C-alpha cells in the first residue's frame, strides 16, 4: 500500500488508521474461513498474508512478489506459515518478462514508473529490475481450478496497474470463481499510465461484482488519496 505523507493532524491519522483496520478485519472474517484460498497480488514482504493469518487460519495464500529483497521476506514467512506459497512473479496481461520499477520504499514498486513530481516522497525511483510476469487466468487454471476449488479472495495491490491484474483473470473474473476482491484504487496520479478508478469499477460491475466497503486513506490535506475497496458478488 502507498505510504502516506506526514499529516497535519497525527491524532486524526491514527484514529483513521485504527478505524479502517478494525473494519477491514471484521470484513475479512466475513469473507474467509479455514477452507479459503487467497491470491495476494503485490505481497511485498507478506504483510497482508500475516494480517489474514492473524484473523483466520485460511487454507492457502498464494503471495505474488517479484522484487528480490521483498520476495525473500515472503519466503521466510512461508517457512513459518506453510499456508503461504511464494510466487516470484508480477501479474500482468501478458506472460513473459517486463521492467519493474523499484522505489525507495519498495512497498510502492510497480510495473509502472513513478510520475516525476508525484506527491509521495516514498515513490522515488531507486532502480529498475527485470521480472517475470504471469496472467492470473493461466495461474488459476494450472494451480487452482484443476482441483475444482474456488478463490475466496483476490487481493490486488499492484500500484497503479490493478486493472491489468483484474483483466488478466479472464474467464475467472466472476463471483463463481472469485468470491470477493480487495483492490487498491488510487484517486491521485502516482504513476505513468496509471489506470483510473472508474475503469476498475466499470470492469467489476460488468463482471458481476458490487462494492461492499471502502477503506480510505487520506493525504496531508485530509482529502481522499487512495483506498482499498472490497467487492463481492451482486
Strand/helix succession: HEHEHEEEEHEHEHEE
| Secondary structure: number of strands | 10
Which structural class matches the secondary elements?
Answer: alpha/beta
State mean pLDDT (0 to 100 scale): 92
The CATH topology is Rossmann fold
CATH class: Alpha Beta
Biggest beta sheet summary: 7 strands, mixed
- Please indicate the count of domains: 1
CATH superfamily: Vaccinia Virus protein VP39
Produce a short descriptive summary.
By secondary structure, the chain is an alpha/beta fold.
Structure description:
The protein has 234 residues and is of the alpha/beta class. It has one domain: Vaccinia Virus protein VP39 (Rossmann fold, 3-Layer(aba) Sandwich). The protein has 6 helices and 10 strands. It has helices at 10-31, 47-55, 68-80, 136-143, 162-167, 197-206, and strands spanning 37-41, 60-64, 84-87, 90-91, 96-103, 125-134, 151-156, 178-186, 209-218, 224-233. The protein has a 7-stranded mixed sheet with strand order 3-2-1-7-8-10-9. It is globular and about 45 Å long. It starts with 9 loop residues before the first helix and ends with a strand. The relative contact order is 0.17.
Amino acid at each position: 500500500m502507498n505510504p502516506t505523507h506526514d499529516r497535519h493532524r497525527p491524532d486524526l491519522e491514527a484514529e483513521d488508521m485504527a478505524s479502517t483496520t478494525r473494519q477491514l478485519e471484521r470484513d475479512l472474517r466475513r469473507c474467509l474461513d479455514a477452507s479459503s484460498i487467497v491470491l495476494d497480488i503485490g505481497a511485498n514482504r507478506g504483510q497482508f498474508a500475516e494480517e489474514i493469518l492473524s484473523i483466520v487460519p485460511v487454507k492457502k495464500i498464494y503471495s505474488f512478489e517479484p522484487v528480490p529483497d521483498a520476495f525473500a521476506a515472503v519466503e521466510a514467512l512461508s517457512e513459518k506459515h506453510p499456508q503461504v506459497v511464494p510466487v516470484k512473479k508480477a501479474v500482468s496481461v501478458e506472460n513473459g518478462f517486463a521492467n519493474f520499477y523499484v522505489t525507495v520504499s519498495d512497498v510502492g514498486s510497480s510495473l509502472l514508473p513513478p510520475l516525476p513530481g508525484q506527491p509521495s516522497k516514498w515513490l522515488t525511483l531507486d532502480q529498475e529490475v527485470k521480472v517475470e510476469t504471469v496472467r492470473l487466468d493461466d495461474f488459476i487454471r494450472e494451480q487452482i481450478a484443476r482441483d475444482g476449488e474456488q478463490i475466496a479472495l483476490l487481493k490486488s495491490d499492484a500500484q497503479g496497474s490493478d486493472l491489468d491484474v483484474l483483466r488478466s483473470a479472464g474467464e475467472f473474473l466472476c463471483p463463481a470463481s472469485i468470491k470477493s476482491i480487495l483492490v487498491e484504487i488510487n484517486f491521485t496520479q502516482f504513476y505513468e499510465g496509471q489506470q483510473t478508478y472508474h475503469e476498475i469499477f466499470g470492469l467489476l460491475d460488468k463482471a458481476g461484482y458490487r462494492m461492499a466497503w471502502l477503506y480510505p486513506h487520506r493525504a496531508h490535506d485530509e482529502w481522499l488519496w487512495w483506498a482499498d475497496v472490497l467487492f463481492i458478488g451482486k
